[in-house]
Amino acid sequence: MMGEDTKGRGLREREVWGSYTGFILTTIGSAVGIGSIWRFPYMVSSNGGASFLLIYIVVLFTFGLAFMVLEFVLGMRYRTSIVSALARIRSRFRFMGLFMVSVSIAILSYYMVVLGWILAYFVMSIMNHYQDFEEFVGSWYPLASYIAVVAINYAIVRSGLRAGVERFNRYGVILLFIMLVPLALIGLSMDRDGEGLRYYTEPDNERLLDPHVWSSAIGQAFFSLSIGLGVLATYGSYVREQRRSIVATSLIIICSVLAVAFLSGLMVFTMVFANGLEDVQGTALVFIAMPRIVSGMEYGYVIGVMFFLLLLIAGVTSSISMLQIPVSALEDTFRFSKGSATLLITMVSLALGIPSALSYSPLHLSISGMPVLDAFDWVFGTIALAVSATLLAVAVAWFMSRDEVMEQVNMNSRMRIPSRLLDVVRILLPAMIVATLLKILVFV
After folding, report:
1. Residue 279: pLDDT band by 50, 70, 90 thresholds?
2. How does the average pLDDT of the chain come out, rounded?
3. DSSP-derived secondary structure for 392-424
4. pLDDT greater than 70 at residue 439
5. Within a domain: residue 12?
6. CA atoms of 158 and 312, how far apart (whole Å)
7. Cα gap 197→265, rounded to integer Å
8. Ramachandran quadrant class, 8 (left: phi over 0; alpha: psi -120 to 50; beta: rest)
9. Which residues, in sequence order, are CB contacts of 423 under 8 Å at separation 6+?
């Protein structure tokens, strides 16, 4: 199980990114998942339209930026897995890392179920025959497509950091932007009366002060930026040499994520309003509304294929990042080989995700009347993720050496950030996460 050392010390040479550009593109790919293209429009429609969009932008460049910088500091400073990195701060923090790894596996397990649905609808778009969503989840296709997605993720991560993860993201992220821009322009051309555009760009001033909208925006930032699980710390740990300041790197990633989210919302709302489907939300927005929209459009076949391929690429770039977290932990902390680590985590996540897949199947597995997938999303994707983010923020901001943090933050930076800013982050970051969690619990 242990990696072999070519120098005879019993240790492997650790993988690194092929280039700094590859690292940035891969991190963008991790952040730009189905949360940005599927979940973001749903959150906008549920929280005041343009008001949510404006608040979300503010949250990204404050809360999101601060958290991203902290995660990168942890990864680039210690250059090891999230478990070992936290143990370097305090040995007992190893258990925090193990908790984060467990949460990432749990989220990955049901995330791949939804990704399996997208894969199935991508195949349907190629065949130019869309199955009704209720009919689809009443069959065994969700289970079959889930297994296919698990195999795809295994193959990419097993291929290695450069040959698998980095290569897929290099092409995937570029292709994602190439497809997203024309789809957004097509949506604008359909929205002739501008109703969808006005809904998306003209905020309601009363909603700007709504605490629920703010907490929802912070929650969306978790999904949009892949923060709180150690993804950014893990990816940062594979950087051979920090060639650009962490703040500049974080801003590039955040701007890219915002561009994808904005274009996704523009595409969805202009198309939805143009077709009178503005009441369709959530899961139905993708699997019910979009097939209806493209079926009545000129060149609808091409647009449908592009849309579901876009969604599939975005989903896979995120799922492989979640798989890489526990694989990295097994490699760095427990000295597993790449093959053994990837196979073990894949098998665990596959087994854990089967109940979620079966909850949208003829068996309709549920917990207290709630589909297993929805229950997992509530427990792990909402509660456990917020707890994980709080632990990570406290560990780095409060217990990591101030000098080490600021040295990493200001490395290769043209403008030095004062250390007193860390004091603000120490208080505000955990407080905002806890406040958001409490707000979510209150609205149960």
Report:
1. low
2. 89
3. HHHIIIIIS-HHHHHHHHHTT-SSPPPTHHHHH
4. yes
5. no
6. 19
7. 10
8. left
9. none
What is the spatial distance between Cα 361 and Cα 343, in angstroms, rounded to a whole number? Answer: 26
Q: Facing residues of 179 across strands?
A: none
**Cα distance between residue 147 and residue 143, in whole Å:** 6
Q: H-helix or E-strand containing 303? A: helix 300-332
207 vs 186: CA distance, rounded Å: 29
Q: What number is the average pLDDT over the span 89-110?
A: 96
Residue 9 lies in a domain: no
Tens of pLDDT, residues 116-135: 999 999 999 999 999 998 99
By three-state DSSP, how is residue 14 classified? coil
Tokens of 152: 């795809």
Mean pLDDT within 123-151: 95
Distance CA 437, CA 241 (A): 36
Distance CA 39, CA 305 (A): 20
How many independent structural domains does the chain possess?
1
Q: Is residue 317 part of a domain?
A: yes
Chain position carrying tokens 């478990």: 83
Which domain, by its residues, includes 436?
Answer: 20-442
> What is the distance between the alpha carbons of residues 108 and 349, in angstroms, rounded to a whole number?
7
Name, of 3-7, 85-89, 296-300, the range with top average pLDDT: 85-89
Beta bridge partners, 336, equal: 2
- Kindly tell me the number of DSSP H helices and DSSP E strands found in the chain: 22, 2
Query: Which of 54-63, 209-218, 223-232 reaches the highest mean pLDDT?
Result: 54-63
* Domain contains 382: yes
Report DSSP letters for 349-400, one per residue. HHHHHHHHHHHTSTT--EETTEEHHHHHIIIIIIIIHHHHHHHHHHIIIIIS
In the numeric block, the tokens 């932007």 are attached to 177
**Residue 282 has what pLDDT?**
57
Q: What is the value of pTM for the model shown?
A: 0.91
Main-chain dihedrals φ then ψ at residue 191, nearest 5 degrees: -85, 70
Look up residue 161 and give its two tokens. 């950091």
Write the DSSP assignment of 234-274 as a string of letters.
HHHHT-SS--S-HHHHHHHHHHHHHHHHHHHHHHHHHHHHH
CATH of the domain at 90: 1.10.4160.10
User: CA-CA distance, 417 to 407, in Å (whole number)?
Assistant: 10
d(C-alpha 267, C-alpha 213), whole Å: 22
- What phi and psi, each to the nearest 5 degrees, are found at residue 376? -60, -40
331 three-class SS: helix
